[in-house]
Amino acid sequence: MGGGLPMGRNGLRSENGVAMVVALVILLVLTLIGFSSISTTTFESSITGNERVGTDAFYAAEAGLQVGLSRLPDTTAIPVTELGGGASYWSGTPKDKGSPKNFGYLGMYWKPGFDSSFSFERFQVNAAGESFGATKELEAQVTYGPFSSGTTYNN
After folding, report:
1. How far is CA 30 from each of CA 16, 34, 70, 116, rounded to the nearest angstrom?
2. Domain chopping of the chain, boundaries
3. Distance (Å, rounded) from C-alpha 124 to C-alpha 141?
4. If you ran DSSP here, which 8-state letter would residue 139 be given?
5. How far apart are CA 29 and CA 23, in angstroms?
6. Nearest 5°: phi and psi at 3?
């Protein structure tokens, strides 16, 4: 009768509680996976919300840019304009919300393909938009014309 474990009750007693320890370890692992999933979902929801607010601010700035382009050659400042839903736009940069800035006049410009009797005017249009604290800024340099430059020649 050899050196192995006895097959009676003493062999079963040495394994008491092993199943409970394994079950508790598996339960702990599943709990950690659950907490990790909840944390990841919360973080992803936050990222999605921030992206939406940033997109709203971009479109508000785009609205301000379009208003500025439609007003050229008038370069006066666009005041803070509310769009609803927490979004607004104005001319200038995000720092200029309290006192919007005029658009820039960059002077006369001659384009290839036009003779010297025509000229164009160049402008720089800056607009900023805001939505729930997120701000975006857009800038466009545009050419406006053609205008008669007053140098016409008669044959």
Report:
1. 23, 6, 60, 79
2. 17-148
3. 4
4. E
5. 10
6. -95, 15
The structure's pTM equals 0.68
Nearest CA to 90 out of 123, 132, 137 is that of: 137
Among the listed residues 52, 86, 72, the one whose alpha carbon sits nearest the alpha carbon of residue 143: 72
Contact 130, 60 (CB under 8 A): yes
Cα separation, 17 vs 23, in Å, equals 10
Tokens 């192995």 correspond to what residue?
4
Per-residue pLDDT band for 15 (boundaries 50, 70, 90) equals low
Answer whether 125's CB lies under 8 Å from 139's CB. yes
**Main-chain phi, psi angles of 145, to 5 degrees:** 155, -165
Give the model confidence (pLDDT) of 93-113 as tens digits.
999 999 999 999 998 888 888
Q: Which residue do the tokens 């379009």 mark? A: 66
Per DSSP, what are the bridge partners of residue 142?
A: 123
Say how far apart CA 90 and CA 130 lie, in whole Å: 9
What is the secondary structure of 77-125 as a DSSP string?
PPPPEEEETTEEEEES-GGGTTSPPPPEEEEEE--TTS-TTEEEEEEEE
Supply the Cα-derived Rg of the chain in whole angstroms.
35
The tokens for 119 are 């000229």
